[in-house]
Specification:
Helix content: 40-55%
CATH architecture of the largest domain: 3-Layer(aba) Sandwich
CATH class of the largest domain: Alpha Beta
Shape: elongated
CATH topology of the largest domain: D-Maltodextrin-Binding Protein, domain 2
Largest sheet: 8 strands, mixed
Amino acid sequence: MDAAGLSVFAAVARAGGITKAAHALHTVQSNVTQRIRLLEAELGVPLFHRHSRGVSLTSAGTELLPYAERIGRLLDEAKEVAANGRLPRGRISIGALETATAVRLPPLLAAYATACPDVDIDITTGTSAALIEAVLAHRLEAGFVAGPVDHPELVAFPVVEEELVLVTAPWIRSLARLRGRGAAVKLIVFRAGCTYRALLEALLAARGVVGTRRLEFGTLDGIVGCVAAGIGVTLLPRAVVARAQREGRVALHTLPRDEARVPTVLVRRRDAFTSAALARFIALAQEVLPVARTRSPRRSRHAPRGGRGAGASDAYDARPTDGSRGAFGMRIHSTR
């Protein structure tokens, strides 16, 4: 059993077929078939069920796959260390909430581009749940998500504490006007998995606003626009909607501190290799962003308090267009 054979096995498992795997590996089908047969003969067990639609893993194949993927990642990490040493080079993949992408990332990305010009960055936006799942699955190296995060496989670095506000149409001057309206109140929210969405539902229920309906959006612009038009209400960081308030398009309702304060943390896998490029990104995030200082990163249910600091934009529409490649080799796309 060697690394090449395990790599082919993992490719077939991902593709669900010999032909598709051969195409992905840029080789011929017979080479893939031979590799799989040799691996099965060496292990003495079948790794795949063969059927007309392709292949599926046997119980033995299912057990082997995580090891094959782990070995593949370790080999990739070894190559990166050998090629780049401790100099920040190459590419890193970072996830971020739509709100963080709009107001927190621009100053950080600008500072990082200056400090590490040889690194390209891919930014993926999504909900906290989706980003955490992507980090756990090794699809992202790190992600900015709403905290606190308590997971045994993750390390969370506190970076900023957001103040959440209830956002309504400008003619709604008091939250008391929402009480008793029930189904007449529509929540303008991101899809399931968004922490702010869950908090909004909880705080309205605590104020007697129940039986609400939801209108889901994948973009921050869409949410703010619908709220401004009076279609519904939402919950967002104050920094995201400050400009819309100044322009008279929305009204912001301040909440009690225990409901309003939510930390944003940068999470990465505890067991994953941290490249020089990623290590510098994490360090710079804690320098540039308003930081909730701790003695060390930890899995915590209680994030230290911080505040809004310099460099945070108040323009909710500051986010680069999805799929565009901006300056400094950065690509931003969405999971929606």
